[in-house]
Amino acid sequence: MSGMRDTTVVPLLRTPDAERTLVGLSFFGGGTAAYRHWTANMPVGTDLVVLCYPGREGRFNEPFPRDWDELAADVTRAVRAADLGPYVLFGHSMSGWLAFDVAARLEAGGTRKPEALVVSSCNAPDRGLTAAELFPARQDDDQRLLEWMSTHGVLPSYVLEDADLTEVALELMRADIGVRDTFEYTGARVSVPLQVFSGGDDQLISADAGARWGGLTDGPHRHDVLGGGHFYTPEIWSALPARIASLDSAS
Asked: The pTM is what?
C-alpha cells in the first residue's frame, strides 16, 4: 500500500499476499484505537487499515475540519490516494454516514469504489439529523460529555486519569459534534453491496433502519442484528470482522 502517509491511512494489520483491505473510519469523538481489537480476528487474506481524521493522533497538528463536507472531502481524498487494491469500507455510528457519503463521492468521481460498504450502529442518513443523532449536544458541559464518551467506549480509562489527555479528548469531541451538526442528506446513493449491523438493545436505531438503508443502494443488502447496545458486547465487537459477509471469500 502506498500513496498516503501512515498518519492518515493507519495500517493495523498487513499480511503477505493479502486479497483485499478492510478500511475502517475513525469514530466521531475518537480515533483508531478501538479497531486494534480486530487485528486478532481478521479473516485470512485481509489487511486492516483505519482512516485518521485531521486534528487527532498522527494528524494532531492539523486543524479540525470545519464542517461535514470538509471532513468527507478529506477522507475521500485519502481513500483515492491510497493504493489499496480491492477494499471494503466500514463505518460505525456517525462514521457509518461518513462511509456512505465517501462511497457515494468515489462513485460519482469515477474512482475505484469499495467492493462493499458496511455500516454499523447508525440509522439511514435519509432521515436527516433527528433528536437521537444530536446527542451528545454542543451545549453539554464537560462532565456530561465525559460520561457519554466513557459509557460508549470512546474514552479509554487511561485518558480520564490524565488531565491533559482529558482536555484533548473534550476538544476533539466538541469539534466532531460541530462537524456532525452540519450534516445534510443530499440524495446520495451507492451501487455497491451494503451490509448493516445494529445492536438488539440499541435504543438509537429505528425499527426500519435495515429497510431504509436498503433503499439507498442499487446493490444487494442485508441487515444483521447483533447482541448488545451501541457497541454490542466486547466479544462481539472484537470478532465483528468475521461477520462481514463480503470478506467471506478471503477465508
From this structure: 0.93
